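Hey, resending since the last one bounced:
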Amino acid sequence: MFERFTQDARAVVIGAVAHCERAGEQRVDEAHLLLALLEREAGRAAFALTALGLTGRRDVVERDLAEARRRGGLTRADADALAGLGIDLTEIVSRVEEAHGQGALAGTHAGAVRRSGRRPFTRGAKDVLTRSLRAAVAHGDRHIGDEHLLLALTARPGVPSEVLADHGATFAAVEDLLWGGSGRAKAG
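The structure tokens again:
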């Protein structure tokens, strides 16, 4: 599938691996893809992120992603669902960190580097790549661009889409901006 990626999309994937390595993590996940997208200054995704006002908010997005990682990767919707059952996620995180140190729920997937030295992608990151292919096909594109990666990130439930939505980058907003809402496709 990588042969169908444009130069911009390839740069995002390579950037995600670099983010993973710099963070000392063993597996490339959706958050790494989002951070790599935010780093880009060219391409359709960069245009969309700039138009939606996310370019100057990289630090805030990184902080939001780190906070979610601290919660063990649970979204606010997950926390709300647990609260509905009488479970206070903030209290659980506090107690775990009290016993095991700050960031104990973050997990780094130690030992996952393949013998080739390449960092494997999590199931979620692979799903984003698959959804980007579906988004490209749905829009009649032969190649997968960085805009399809962005659209796939907004379509997949989880922390990155929640963080993007918090900053106005929803599936509908990205699609309307890039394709004018015509022929609304589903990247999932």
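The chain is about 60% helix and 0% strand.

Sorry for the duplicate.
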